Structures are given as structure tokens and as C-alpha cells.
Amino acid sequence: MGPVVPAGDDGLLDPRLLRLFDALYSVGSVTQAADSLQISQPTASLQLAALRRALGDPLFVRSPTGMRPTPRADELIAGVRAALDALRRVSTGRTAFSPAATSRRFRIHMSDASTVTLLPTLLKRAREEAPGVRLDAVPIDGHTPAELRSGAGDLALGFVPGLETGFLAQSLYSQDWVCLVGAAHPHVRRSLTRGQFATLGHVTIGQGTGATLLEERLVDAGIRRDAVLTVPGVLGLPAILASSQLVATVPRHVGTVLAHDPRIRLTACPIDVGTFVVRSYWHARFDGDPAHQWLRRLVVDLFGSSSTAGGTGGRGKPTRPWAVAGFV
Q1: pLDDT per position as a tens digit, 164-184
Q2: CA pair distance 155, 146, nearest whole angstrom
Q3: Which residues neighbour 8 within 8 Å (Cβ) at sequence distance 6 or greater?
Q4: C-alpha closest to that of 36 among 20, 18, 60
């Protein structure tokens, strides 16, 4: 064995010294501690001397019953054992995560539409597997990338273009667009025509990347909607549409859920505005975290493209996460 260096430039003790401290505290004998560590007795004595110099205390003193710890050693033993336990976890692999035992709180960024379509199902399954888990649903906004990067946020669910270096994503399902009108709308019967879409008044969603994408595609198609009313989200749409002759254009998943309200009716969007992919996003720093992996597995099981009804339940097979193209 080479010379023992009690502390480096950063002031950290050599882990070998911590192991000797723990063993000597347990058995009260330098010889027995050396045997348990499979080192020689002279090496153990040298390490003990290094420990004493580094910590400025005898630590262990001779007595009729063996080497007895000093009050300073009694103060240090809990910290020494915690440090050794942490080093063992780092050396042997990832810390185990038990959903049944966790009380962790996860922070998930999502649109208000996702709180209607995804959150109830996610909460139900999460609480089935992890009764003590807590979820915070917060909006997708300009703070989302920074929160995912720092760990203040765990996942983002939805359509979040433009994330920079270090982010990963998992494709869940594809969405097209549908229209909603009041069930008693006097001009829209079985379907909505392109002409009606262009001339009727609209309720538009004023926030969210999906709303911005829709507006861009309508402009590309030569359509400019008459935005009679702009609202911050989808939650009030049934009451608004039932009491007006307005039209709302929303992702199909949202429209399907809202159309359970008998006051409104779902119809195909007469304008080809394409589709978009709903994904889960997280930062690569947390890709290997077992708790994150559990949450991401749950999301894919529930909302992956092979799940029942494109994300309304069932168990889909997780696919390999891909790096956000061009950014990792």
C-alpha cells in the first residue's frame, strides 16, 4: 500500500480512513479492524495516525476493554457511516426506487387541455402504483425549459418545440384537429363546411404552442378566422359554444373529451391543418434517475401510441427515448 493521504486539496478524507474509523469503532481493536479490512496491522496503525492528525483528536484511546472512542469520535461516527453508505451506493449503482413506499412530489408541465385529457388518467394510475405520490400540474410556458433543466420540473407533456441542448423526448401519440359547435347550432348540421369555417365567428385559444401552430397553418391555408372571443384555455368552451353560434377548433383528444357534454357537438375540421405529435420531455441530467424512469414509464404505458384509443388508457410498449433533433 502507498502512503496514506488524509485529505486532498478539497479537504476530503481518504475513504480508506473512513473505513478504518468505522471498523475500529465497531470492534475496538486495531488488529481486529485490520483483519476485517484485509490490511496489515502496521497499515491500520498508520491510517489511525493519519486520521488523528487530520481530525485533531486521538479518536480512540486504550482501555482495559479495548480501544474506546473519544467524545469527538462519538460525534463523528454517524456522519462517517452515512458518507460510506453514500459512496457504496455510488459505487454499486443506482439507488432503488419503490413506488409503493415513495412520498415524492412530481412537477409536470402541461397545457390546460392536458389537465382535462391526460391528468385524470395519470393521477389514477400513479396513485394505484404509488399511494403516497403527489403531483403538481403547472402550465407549459417560458419558464418550462429552465425548470426541467434545474430539476424544479420533472416532465413536460404536450407540444413543446424549440428546446435546446440537453433535452430528451418520448413520442406519445399524434393529434389532428376537430371543430366544436353548440349542439343546437342553427347553421351547422352534420358537418362544417370550409365556407362556414371561414365566415362564422370563432372562439380562439390565446395561449399555448398548439394554438400558435394552428394559427400558422390556417394562415398557410389562406384562412383568417373571425376571432369573436379569445379565451386562455379550453375549460369554459362547452358553456360558451352552447350559448353562441361560434366555432372552436381544438386537438381531437380535447374535442372528444369535451364533446361528452351534450350541449356541444364535434365535427371534422374542414381545413387541412395537418397533425402534431404529443410528447413527454425531460432533461438529460435526470434520464437515469429511477423515480423519473418510473414516471416516464407510466406516461408511455398510458398514453403511448399503442395504448387504447391513442392515449386514453391501456398499456403501450415503451419505445427508446430520442434526443430532440439537432439539440443534443
Answers
A1: 778 999 999 998 999 999 999
A2: 12
A3: none
A4: 20
